[in-house]
Structures are given as structure tokens and as C-alpha cells.
Amino acid sequence: LDINVSLEELARLTPGYVGADLKALAREAAMCAVNRIFETAVDLKSGTKRVSIEEIELELQKSKTIGILIKF
Fold this sequence. Notes:
This protein is 65% helix and 0% strand. The chain is mainly α. It has one domain. Helix 2 packs across helix 3 (53-71). The mean pLDDT is 75.
């Protein structure tokens, strides 16, 4: 995780999430970070890319939308 990611904030944003939900959210946010690396043609040898809170929030919005659709 990026240094700016607050676990307290993440907990506040994900009420009712269980471990599997958080794992899926983290996986999707990490894939977003990987995609960003490839899109910007950053040299992978330059270091690791950490997952930002923005990427987590983006994936969280996607997961909430999917959850709403599943309820219907």
C-alpha cells in the first residue's frame, strides 16, 4: 500500500466488508496500479509501484456498483 493509505480510512469506507471482500478490493486496486505502469511505460526495474488510496476508492466504487446490481 501507498504510504498515504490510512487503514482507518479504508475501514471507514468499507463497512460490512469481510476479509474476502477486502482481499478482492486490494487485488483489483493492485491490477489498476499494474495497468497504470504499463500505460505510462514506466520502467519496471525502477522500483515497486504502491497502490494509492485513489485506486482503492475507484475499485471500491466498482465493487459497490456490482453489489447493487447483484441485489436486483
